[in-house]
Amino acid sequence: MENKSMSYEYDLNLKATELRLALPGSDEPDEKQSVTCVRSNKRASSEISEESKSSSSVTIAGNGDSDAPPPAKAQVVGWPPIRSYRKNCLQGNKNEGEGVGRFMKVSMDGAPYLRKIDLRVYNSYSELLNALENMFKLTIGAYSERVGYHGSDYTPTYEDKDGDWMLVGDVPWEMFISSCKRLRIMKGSEARGLGCSL
Amino acid sequence: MDSEWKRFRDSPNSEELTRRSSFPDEVLERVLSLLNSHKDRSSVSLVCKDWYNAERWSRTHVFIGNCYSVSPEIVARRFPNIRSVTLKGKPRFSDFNLVPENWGADIHAWLVVFVVKYPFLEELRLKRMVISDESLEFLSVSFPNFKSLSLLSCDGFSTNGLAAIATHCKNLTELDIQENGIDDRGGSWLSCFPESFTSLEVLNFANLASDVNFDVLERLVSRCKSLRVLKVNQSISLEQLQRLLAHAPQLTELGTGSFSQQLTSHQDEELKTAFSNCKNIHTLSGLWDVKAIYLPTLYPACANLTFLNLSYAALQGGELAKLLVHCPQLRRLWVLDTVEDKGLEAVGLNCPLLEELRVFPIDPYGEEIAHEVTEAGFIAVSNGCRRLHYVLYFCRQMTNAAVETVVRNCPNFTHFRLCIMIPGRPDYTTNEPMDEAFGAVVKTCTKLQRLSVSGLLTDLTFEYIGKYAKNLETLSVAFAGSSDWGMQCVLEGCPKLRKLEIRDCPFGNKALLSGLEKYESMRSLWMSACNLTLNGCRALAREMPRLNVEVMKEDGSDESHADKVYVYRTVAGPRRDAPPSVLTL
């Protein structure tokens, strides 16, 4: 997946509100002194295309201009110039911590082949379950501590470090991603059996 | 050809000999077949008609730096005996998401011609091309002699395409899959190599994420006795690596898998033994998730190491220092900036033969700047590594004085790529532009072929470049310059310029049009987020019919504004496969 955190917004109104010494309506060439800011969106919203508007401008630090907003916060498409592949790899590397691998196998009962997902892309169970629902085109239903997942034929389970098959959702998210080795979406009666035994 | 040889043979008249080219064509072809460099071959083909013909008949490898500069039909007409093709497609800035997804550079049109004209094609090396699974399958079944496939920074395919290659290419010697936008659907493609298949010499799947079947890999490695390059992916553990090395001590290039498994002391010993049996390793890479305590297992294999790629291994400075002590022959080193200046000092101390250094940022967006290299590290390397001629350096701060020191220590730079990651950042100690830094580079490094500039730069930088960089072939510019004059200086001053790529600079139509004649001697020009208009581009297209002038529009931008412009010389005319968002003027 292309790293979508590269998108940004170009605020077209900024020039109009910018305080300048020139007469209104006079157009200045885009010089190094201009301090046009770019707000960065870490998650791409569906309205903002990845290469939206003009891909120019970024905070340009003027000479000794201490009022310039900190440039480090600005994110621009394609900058710094690092290949997407390398960027995506390094994002994973950044998170120190044991981890049992970045990509987890996900199997679904009855499916002809397995899939792989990167758990670090998600921040919560609901994001993960949404992704699984999209990937396998099914509904998983709501988690409940008492009966597990009811309201659907599918139950998400995972194998932990000890080799035991556990129900997804019982432990806090952080604990889950550090102990999960692989995922399996169980189907039908087998799934219900697991739910009942809890 | 044959008739001329007969004529020579039948009339050994010395006068006739001296009147025509001294060698009969067959001999000339034989001699020329020993020439490999395509630049040499281009020169040869310009000598005279006989030499042109002899050259074209004897050429077996063709290199095409821009797939749209020529058509496959033209290539096939000129070179009838090609066995190996290298093709580059998209502009380099496509690596950074600046080129629209469906821009082009699809290999299929070429394959369709090759299957007719070069049925004995053996090798295909692609960079920034689009290749679909269908094309890969077509390739695998249509060319019975196909031996070698290398894909770098390509996209459009999935692991299913690799499965087709593994299944059908009976004579495959090389499968090299690097940093591609691949749809990874799993590792089962590796299992598609038949059990009878033994010809593999190069296997690189380091950048594929999925697990492969280890038993299959182990059997493949053990039966391919000529395997010399093996680069596995992260899914391969240390224990598995040891087993692979035991089967292939003859390896010259190794890319390890993950370097972080918990090993027993016995396993540790076994791994060390395996490495010590590998006496021929000159290139080492991988080391994903490296845990420094396992690095000593590598030491026995490092005696002949010339290229160490640690750009996916987040090592600390001290850990790198310990490793480098064992690598006295190192010529090329790639690291992450987690090593910090301390690590670079160790480089300066331990690697006197170093010729190339690349330092990549682990955290390009600077959210938590825990690690970085500074100008101090750069100077430290230059102090100890006087043979340095290639540098790629990502940092957040730099000074003019530091760069001046670096090039004084190392005047032989051929490739100087400095990326100060904060756009428009001045010399942080003086707050001045970085003009003098790059001025020093071009004045001192007379052999400079490639330059990437960054930081706060005025037109002065480009005046320096135009005045001094007489061997410059590739120039990359971003967020720099003050006016059209800057770009004009470069276009007028650099006689060997071939590739110019510019983004976010205040260069407009006047600058663009000042290079009219120049562009025909260049491979390409890229300009995005500058001050170009459609009219300016139209004027260029009108004046220079042998250039393709492509304008990529973005949604919602000003009608007359030319957001992204790509200009390149071509003998194939305007291309017909451009998507609607790309206008060819």
UniProtKB/TrEMBL annotation, chain A:
A GO CC annotation given for this chain: nucleus
Residue ranges, annotated region (Disordered): 23-76
Single Gene Ontology BP annotation: auxin-activated signaling pathway
InterPro entries linked to this entry: AUX/IAA_dom, AUX_IAA, PB1-like
Compartments (UniProt record): Nucleus
Top-level division of the source organism's lineage: Eukaryota
Record bears the keyword Metal-binding: no
PANTHER family xref list: AUXIN-RESPONSIVE PROTEIN IAA17, AUXIN-RESPONSIVE PROTEIN IAA3
Native source species: Rubroshorea leprosula
Name listed for the protein in its UniProt record: Auxin-responsive protein
Family from the record: Belongs to the Aux/IAA family.
A Pfam family hit: AUX_IAA
PROSITE patterns: PB1 (PS51745)
Function: Aux/IAA proteins are short-lived transcriptional factors that function as repressors of early auxin response genes at low auxin concentrations.
Keywords, comma-separated and alphabetical: Auxin signaling pathway, Nucleus, Repressor, Transcription, Transcription regulation
Gene3D superfamilies, alphabetized: Phosphatidylinositol 3-kinase Catalytic Subunit, Chain A, domain 1 (3.10.20.90)
Assembly and binders: Homodimers and heterodimers.
Domain PB1: 101-188
Keyword Repressor listed: yes
TrEMBL record, chain B:
One GO BP: auxin-activated signaling pathway
The organism's place on the tree of life at top rank: Eukaryota
Coiled coil residues, start to end: none
SUPFAM superfamilies: F-box domain (SSF81383), RNI-like (SSF52047)
CDD domains in UniProt: F-box_AtTIR1-like
Places the protein is found: Nucleus
InterPro entries documented for this protein: COI1_F-box, F-box-like_dom_sf, F-box_dom, Leu-rich_rpt, Leu-rich_rpt_Cys-con_subtyp, LRR_dom_sf, Transp_inhibit
Record flagged with keyword Nucleus: yes
Name of the protein described by the UniProt record: F-box domain-containing protein
